[in-house]
Specification:
This protein has 15 helices and twelve strands. 38% of the residues lie in helices and 15% in strands. The chain folds into two domains: 44-259, Aspartate Aminotransferase, domain 2; 262-393, Alpha-Beta Complex (Aspartate Aminotransferase, domain 1), CATH 3.90.1150. With 396 residues, the chain is of the alpha/beta class. Helix 8 (192-195) links the parallel strand 5 (183-187) and strand 6 (205-209). Helix 4 (90-101) packs across helix 9 (230-243). One of its GO terms (biological process) is cysteine biosynthetic process via cystathionine. GO terms for molecular function: cystathionine gamma-lyase activity; homocysteine desulfhydrase activity; methionine gamma-lyase activity; pyridoxal phosphate binding. Keywords: Lyase, Pyridoxal phosphate. Its EC number is 4.4.1.2.
Length: 396
C-alpha cells in the first residue's frame, strides 16, 4: 500500500488538514491567539496524561490553552502568586472560588461593602446550597474573631470596596483571618496589582474582574484568579474545568494586550481622579465625596499604609437623592452612563438602581450607599474636559 503523504492526499482531505507553520528561531512580538478548541496528539498515553494535569500538554481549551496560560502567567507574576486560573468573567472567577472552596453547612465572613454581584452570589448560595453568610463592617480586625463560628471557612474582602471606596486595614484583617485558619480571598479589581498585592499581606486567593482595569478598553469580558500556593490552584482548576468557566483565547489575548499599558493608564486615571474629587467636593450640588486620596476620607490613613496610589473610582452623594442621582447620567456628554468601569473612558452609574440593585434599602444603607450616590470611574481624558462635562451636568 502506498504510504500517505501530504502530496498524495486528495483535495477534500488536504482542505481540512492545513499544516501549522513552524517558526524556527523567530518569536512573535505579540502572544499568538490559539483559537482552537482541541489539540491533537501522536501518542495516546500522552493524551491521557495531558488531561490529568493543569500544567501538562494542552489538550482541550476548557482545560487550558497557550493564550489563556500566557494571561495566567502574566497576572500571577504581577500579583506575586504561585499561579492563576483565567475565567470567562470576574463573576465566573468569584463563583468558581466560592463553589470550589465552600461546602453545604460552611460559614463565610464577608466585608459588608462588596460588589453587588458578589452580594447576590453569597445570598444565592445561602438560599440554595445551605451556606451561611455573615457580614463584618471592616472597622476593626477584632470583628473577625468576634464573628467566628465553628463552621467558618472563608474571609472575603475587597481592596478598594465597590462602590464607596472603603479601604479596610487589609494586612490586619488578613492576619486575623489567617490566625483563625480561614481561606482568605481578596477582590483586587479596583486596586490592580499596581496599587496593591494582597498575597504579600497574607491573602490565599486574589480575584480580578479583568474586564475592568486589566483589560482597560471596554472590549473584553474576562476574569483571573491568582493563588498564593500551587496546591490550592490545582484544586480550584479542577472545579473550573467541571463548571466550564474557562476563558476564551481571544478574550485572554485582548486582556494581555490591555495589561501592557496598565501602568500608564492607572497613573493617569489616579491623577485625574484626584482632580475631580477635589472639584466635586467644592460643588454645592454635592453633599459628600469619597476618594481614598482625600484627607477627609475615613480610610485615608489606612489607604496610605498599603496602597501605592488611591485608585480611579470616586463616589459622591448628590443633594436631592435618587431622582437627582438617576438624572445626572442624562446630562453628561464626555463621561458615559454605563454599568461597568475601569476603561480608558470615564463612566458613571447610579449604584442603588444598577450595580447594587440586588440590595434592599437596609442593605444599601448598611453598605453606605445613598439614594443619590454616584460611582464615577475616571478615565484618561483631559481632566479639565471631564470637569467641564460634570459641572454642566450637575444641578444648580
Amino acid at each position: 500500500m502506498t504510504p500517505l503523504t501530504s502530496a498524495s492526499l486528495r483535495p477534500e482531505t488536504r482542505a481540512v488538514h492545513v499544516e501549522t507553520p513552524s517558526l524556527s528561531d523567530a518569536r512573535p512580538m505579540s502572544v499568538p491567539i490559539y483559537q482552537t478548541s482541541n489539540f491533537a496528539f501522536d501518542d495516546p498515553d500522552a493524551l491521557v496524561e495531558a488531561m490529568a494535569h493543569p500544567d501538562g500538554d494542552f489538550v482541550y481549551t476548557r482545560y487550558g490553552n497557550p493564550t489563556t496560560h500566557a494571561l495566567e502567567t502574566a497576572v500571577a507574576g504581577l500579583e506575586g502568586g504561585a499561579g492563576a486560573v483565567a475565567s470567562a468573567s470576574g463573576t465566573g472567577a468569584i463563583s468558581t472560588v466560592l463553589l470550589a472552596t465552600l461546602r453545604s453547612g460552611d460559614h463565610v465572613l464577608a466585608q459588608r461593602q462588596v460588589y453587588g454581584g458578589t452580594f447576590a452570589l453569597l445570598t444565592a448560595f445561602a438560599d440554595r446550597l445551605g451556606i451561611e453568610v455573615g457580614f463584618i463592617d471592616g472597622d476593626d480586625p477584632a470583628e473577625v474573631a468576634a464573628a467566628l463560628r465553628p463552621n467558618t471557612r472563608m474571609l472575603y474582602l475587597e481592596t478598594i470596596a465597590n462602590p464607596m471606596t472603603r479601604v479596610i486595614d487589609l494586612p490586619a484583617f488578613l492576619a486575623a483571618g489567617n490566625a483563625a485558619g480561614l481561606t482568605t480571598v481578596v477582590d483586587n479589581t479596583f486596586a490592580t496589582p499596581l496599587l496593591c498585592r494582597p498575597i504579600e499581606w497574607g491573602a490565599d486567593i486574589v480575584v480580578h474582574s479583568a474586564t475592568k482595569y486589566l483589560g482597560g478598553h471596554s472590549d473584553v469580558i474576562s476574569g483571573v484568579t491568582v493563588f498564593a500556593d500551587e496546591r490550592r490552584r490545582r484544586e480550584v482548576w479542577r472545579h473550573a474545568i467541571e463548571l466550564g468557566a474557562c476563558a476564551d483565547p481571544f478574550a485572554a489575548w485582548l486582556t494581555i494586550r490591555g495589561i501592557k499599558t496598565l501602568p500608564l493608564r492607572i497613573r493617569r486615571q489616579c491623577a485625574n481622579a484626584a482632580v475631580l474629587a477635589d472639584r466635586l467636593a467644592e460643588h454645592p450640588a454635592v453633599a459628600s465625596v469619597r476618594w481614598p486620596g482625600r484627607a477627609d476620607h475615613p480610610d485615608h490613613a489606612v489607604a496610605r499604609g498599603h496602597l501605592a496610589d488611591f485608585g480611579a473610582i470616586v463616589a459622591f452623594d448628590l443633594v436631592g437623592g435618587r431622582e437627582t442621582g438617576q438624572n445626572l447620567g442624562k446630562g453628561v456628554r464626555v463621561a458615559r452612563l454605563a454599568a461597568s468601569l475601569g476603561g480608558v473612558e470615564t463612566t458613571l452609574v447610579h449604584p442603588a438602581s444598577t450595580s447594587h440593585r440586588q440590595l434592599d434599602a437596609e442593605a444599601l444603607a448598611a453598605a453606605g450607599i445613598g439614594e443619590g450616590t454616584i460611582r464615577l470611574s475616571v478615565g484618561v481624558e483631559d481632566p479639565d474636559d471631564l470637569w467641564a462635562d460634570l459641572a454642566q451636568a450637575l444641578p444648580g
